[in-house]
Amino acid sequence: MRYQRSLAGVALGLLCAAALPVGSLEASCTNRGSFSSWMKEFRQEAAQNGVSQRTISRALDGVSLDERIIKRDRRQGFFSQSFNDFSKKLATNHRLQAGRKKIAANRKTFERAEATYGVPAEVITAFWALESDFGVGMGDYPVLQALATLAYDCRRHELFRAELLSALKIIDRGDLDPGEMIGSWAGELGQTQFLPTHYLNHAVDFDGDGHANLFKSDADIIGSTAAYMKHLGWRPNEPWLQEVVVARDLPWQEADLAIKHPRSKWAGWGVKLANGKALPNDNLPASLLLPMGRTGPAFLAYNNFDIYLEWNQSLNYATTAAYLATRIGGADPMKGQDRNIPSLSGQEMKALQSSLTDRGYDVGKIDGILGAKTRAAVKEMQLKFNLPADSYPTIDLLRQLGG
Fold first, then answer.
1. Residues pairing with 273 in the sheet
2. Which of 68, 130, 297, 316 could crosslink 79 through cysteines, CB 3.0-4.6 Å?
3. Residue 96: inside a domain
4. Are 302 and 261 within 8 A, CB to CB?
5. 293: left (phi over 0), alpha (psi -120 to 50) or beta
6. How many Å apart are CA 34 and CA 283, to the nearest integer?
7. Three-class SS string for 48-78?
8. What's the CA gap between 83 and 370, in Å, rounded?
9. For this UniProt entry, which residues form the secretion signal (predicted)?
């Protein structure tokens, strides 16, 4: 993962992992012949799907199997840091200030994007900052070679075969030349790191030059990111994330992204705005999000927060992107970020996951990552042990599990 540059590879890794189980993909894989034989068959498929022979030749002549890509795919890391550490590294003051400058420089374009798609400037800009630092780090891999390698490899061949075909269609309609397709090792393109399928279906020509270019056109980047978020279900004129403070006697089992209550109910449980003022006494539904447990930062996550999880299923990434957007929009810095909250090491997390698995819980892969399934299992065990059920694992819980 390229913290100093882009989150794209990890974003795609999470997306691909969720799309289809790796085992089922490998079992259905028929790529047992040589890469050249596979490529010959794929060229035929591309032609059958309407891609011109000129594009097929321009894009695929000279493409070879790249073992670097396979090794990178096998060893990819996810978001194993705590939320506090992760958000400090990603939601930096540099990105905050750069984001505000980007909005000022493109104000009319952002206004047009919000009028068209309903997505505010700060939301678009936060993704732009995290994905590529506004174009500084879009990746340096030949995307066509990377996609062909991953489509041939049996790990997730069906997904990447579709992405390679979409990449050819992008070239065929004239948006990009093959040589411009330099991006992440996992095949993502442009300054907001779109998968080729997303680029093909949701990139828009927002500057009116006849092409959608997410590498060079700020207008196209802004419009396309907004269009994609609208496609994911963004609700105009609604919030996404709001920092709050919580009472010590709150019913912690209610703090769950799967549970939503009106703000009036959260207020009745002692939840207040981060500045200590009362929450609005209305029926707007929200979940209470505690990424570091009950002693860490606390947020109300609204319906639009679901779109962040659609963009990237890592809770750390989604919360950081949503928080950075609030900061770009003028919110105060997070209050609970500097608290020294103990977190389990990677090995301790694996031990916890193993213990939960032994007790019949489905935590997914035992990988040392605090994902949604692990959080759900932790909450169940906390309830059984009569502990505050905030879904955040501690060393005390691990000891009670015998780890």
1. 244
2. 316
3. no
4. no
5. left
6. 60
7. HCCCCHHHHHHHHCCCCCCHHHHHHHHHCCC
8. 10
9. 1-27
